[in-house]
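Open question from group meeting: does this chain pack into something compact, or does most of it stay loose? Before anyone orders reagents, we agreed to write out a predicted structure and look at it together. Recording both the input and the output here so the notebook holds the full record.
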Amino acid sequence: MLLIDIGNTRIKWAYIDADHWLAEGAAKINDGLSLKQAFANLPKPNKILISNVAGAEAAQQVREACAAWNCPVEFMSACAAQCGVQNNYEHPEKLGSDRWATLIAAWHHERAACLVVSCGTATTIDALSGKGEFLGGLILPGIDMMQRSLTTGTAQLEMNEKNRAGLDLQKFPRNTTDAIFSGAIQATTGAILRQYELLGVPDARCLLSGGAADSVQPYLTLPLLRVENLVLRGLQIMERES
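Structure tokens returned:
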């Protein structure tokens, strides 16, 4: 079976047989050629499961990359309850498929109350109760998006792109580059810590994932576990328990 996570900037995939991950990879969202080349080296899957939050064009790109196999393709979506998780979103079907799959994977990993944080183009901070109830969550701009929104939307603010990769959080920044980076980190970690407080479960863990998690993890002071590929793992569980 082939699992595919179409995100806003990357397409991640895993080829599995039962519970065994045989191959995995990623491509940029508009790099259909790389995706086709990667899939050309895989055996024909018996089914393809997809989470897509990037829209119709990205979905079509993935369909084309998979077309040679001529096998069933299913786009997953959120629902009211699945795999032991109760969806308390006001309109359950409107919860992003990536968040839903992530919550299912997190619940099966913890079987306890936890905070589920995914750091990517956007940062999502979702809460699960000890009964597997999705209580709700936040969506923030991701670390990079926060910084770029300031530098592109404010004429007087500029980031020093050359030095950006080596930045560290400054308590009281004294230049614009540090001020923007530290502001983005403080806003993100502050939101995570606040939601953790609101969850109100002593010793509950925060599951952290996503491409920007490295920027956030050093500044979080709470019980923390790094778990990658939660969307793909959630898709795997959905299929296994369907």
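Observations to bring back to the group:
Helices lie at 32-40, 56-66, 97-110, 143-153, 176-199, 213-216, 230-241.
The first helix runs from residue 32 to 40.
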